[in-house]
Amino acid sequence: MPYPKSMVEPMRKELTRLGIDELKSPDDVDAAFGAAEDETLLLIINSVCGCAAGGARPAVAQALETGPTPDHAVTVFAGQDVAATDYVRDTHLPGIPPSSPFMALFRNGQPVYVIERKHIEGREPAAISADLVEALQAYCTDEAPPSDAPSRPDLSSSPNAGGLPSTFQSIS
């Protein structure tokens, strides 16, 4: 059962105030991806969880302020815009396990970079933003991306690499 609209509206606005378009139906998803077919598109799967509030949404804001920016930026809200979220996952993210929050950068209709929940949990917004900026710099240009362009964050230098998020480390 979805959370009350009044509860999630502020969470939606954290992204829409940045100029990110909400996709609330499969038709909205088709229209957005159709418009970005030969361009770049950043998809954010929003969520009510703490790592969305404390990590993902602030990281997106920081990354978009830093630039470069994608041609299009869109969001669906997991658990709220259920049909749109399921459709975007099934249609545009095949083989990628569902998670939220989640971010994917698309270039020419194909996902080229993903940030899954496991790349967000226990990390500071600045670190998540740096990962996203690296992807934007590699893929949001008129030039071909470098051969070593990343496809996911490299967590090997993260303090929590390979372990539990900091909030759960005391129980390991």
Tags for this model:
BrxB/BrxA, 172 residues, Glutaredoxin, 16% strand, Bacilliredoxin SRU_0242, 5-stranded mixed beta sheet, alpha/beta
Please describe what this structure looks like.
Helices cover 38% and strands 16% of the residues. The longest helix is centred in the middle third of the chain and has 17 residues, at 50-66. With 172 residues, it is an alpha/beta fold. It has a single domain (5-171), classed as Glutaredoxin, CATH 3.40.30.10. The protein contains 5 helices and 5 strands; from the N terminus they run αβαβαβαββα. It has a 5-stranded mixed β-sheet, with helices on both faces. The protein has helices at residues 5-16, 26-35, 50-66, 82-92, 125-139, and strands at residues 21-22, 40-46, 72-77, 102-107, 110-115. The radius of gyration is 15 Å and the shape is globular. Residues 154-172 have a biased composition (Polar residues). This is Bacilliredoxin SRU_0242. Residues 141-172 are annotated as: Disordered. InterPro entries: BrxB/BrxA (IPR009474).
What's the structural blueprint in terms of helices and strands?
Elements: H1 5-16, E1 21-22, H2 26-35, E2 40-46, H3 50-66, E3 72-77, H4 82-92, E4 102-107, E5 110-115, H5 125-139
Parallel strand pairs: 1-3, 2-3
Antiparallel strand pairs: 2-4, 4-5
Helix pairs in contact: 2-4, 3-5
